[in-house]
Specification:
mainly beta; about 170 residues; 12 strands; four-stranded mixed sheet; 2 helices
């Protein structure tokens, strides 16, 4: 994606940005804040692409997004069937961008790449029908004895089924 250096100098000076980076630091990027939106994506596709229970993204106009460093380390995967494009660091594998054909002027970036605020809190959940059955959904947690800082879910009590069912 091309850098957006076409902004007038005063606009560059007055804008507030959020910087993000991949795990190894080879790729650094920024968006002008506030981000357009933020959401949690529970789809199976994003779960696999991100390697986690769900992916949290912030969306930015492409014109307000730029790669500060490491463009040569970005590899893109195009899903021809879905029409999506995902960018990732070819050194450490960190997911960097997600583009969808429904919004070609936007780029979506994993929220975890940003240490600071992006101007939007993720308050939307997409594809809840695809939530993995192992996803933590806020069940009560208790400390794990002899392991400081480790919390666990208490075992679930088995529900008794009425006589004659199954």
């Amino acid at each position: 994606m091309p850098a957006s250096d076409a902004l007038p100098e005063h606009a560059k000076r007055d804008r507030v940005t959020a910087e993000g980076a991949c795990t190894c630091g080879a790729v650094r990027l920024e968006i002008v804040t506030p981000a357009v939106w933020a959401w949690h994506d529970h789809s199976a596709v994003s779960r696999r692409a991100q390697g986690c229970a769900y992916a949290t993204y912030v969306g930015s106009w492409k014109s307000k997004f730029r790669v500060l460093e490491g463009e040569e380390h970005i590899t893109r995967y195009r899903d021809v069937e879905a029409g999506t494009v995902r960018g990732f660091c070819n050194r450490c594998g960190t997911p960097l961008t997600y583009e969808r054909p429904r919004s070609p002027q936007m780029v979506n970036i994993p929220r975890a790449l940003f240490d600071g605020r992006t101007g939007r809190e993720p308050r939307y959940h997409m594809f809840l029908g695809e939530v993995a059955d192992w996803t933590y959904l806020g069940e009560p947690l208790a400390p794990l004895k002899d392991y400081p800082g480790v919390m666990r879910e208490r075992p679930r009590k088995k529900k008794q089924r009425p006589e004659g069912m199954f």
